Amino acid sequence: MQVIGRIMASSRLHEPPAPRLPGQTGRTRVRGDRLPTPQEMLQQKRLQRLTLKLFAGRAYHVRVATQVCRFFKAPDRDVLVIAVQHLRGGRGREVFYTTDIHADVESVLSRYSRRWSIEMTFHDTKQHLGIEEPQNRTCPAARHTAPTAFLLYSLIVWWYEQVREEPAPAVLNWRGKTHPSFADMLCALRAESLQNISPKSFSTPPLPPDIQKLIQHLTKLVQLAT
Predict the structure, then answer these.
(1) What are the extents of the domains in the chain?
(2) What are phi and psi of 107, to 5 degrees?
(3) Average pLDDT along the chain
(4) Confidence label for 205 from pLDDT (cuts 50, 70 and 90)
(5) Residues 161, 150: Cα–Cα separation, whole Å
(6) Given a cut of 90, is residue 150 above it in pLDDT?
(7) Whether pTM exceeds 0.90
(8) Which of 102, 155, 199, 214 measures 20 to 30 Å from 28, CA to CA?
(9) 3-class DSSP state of 66
């Protein structure tokens, strides 16, 4: 199994320890010589420049420095450290590592960027399905609450992708938006549910225009409720 993660720009990096020589006395070295920190790696000149297209096709213009080394606190395994300096925008400097020391820079950053969809799932489940609100007091209740919320999230996305035939109207539009958000999917599900309930609840007698207008307003509020 290979691991990809992030580290601080000031992390201490080392070479592997030199092999023990015949007849050598004393304790075997755990770490080799000290190597430049990621911060110092980016201070070098003539670094490689790349244009990376990661999640949602967004392009990032960066300077990149790499080196195979070992962490101070994990001196028994080689890792590939990738220090990135963004040339545009406000992301500044970021440092990544992977245990797959033969991977190329773009592959590592592309794999790491896939975490974004997971982070968005956590955000949407908390904001729209209230996963952070229950006040559980027992371990079984806590173990049931989160899986139930994520199951509900998955069912709503599945319903929108597989059952609904028309695209949902956008709740909010922003620059560069090309796909429906979870809020759009949830709003569409609520709207369709209300349409199925309304004929049974408000079929007869005909409602006055002012009551119909009020119901339309309340329906909109229900669709947008969080």
Answers:
(1) 4-16+29-113, 136-224
(2) -65, -40
(3) 86
(4) low
(5) 17
(6) yes
(7) no
(8) 102
(9) strand
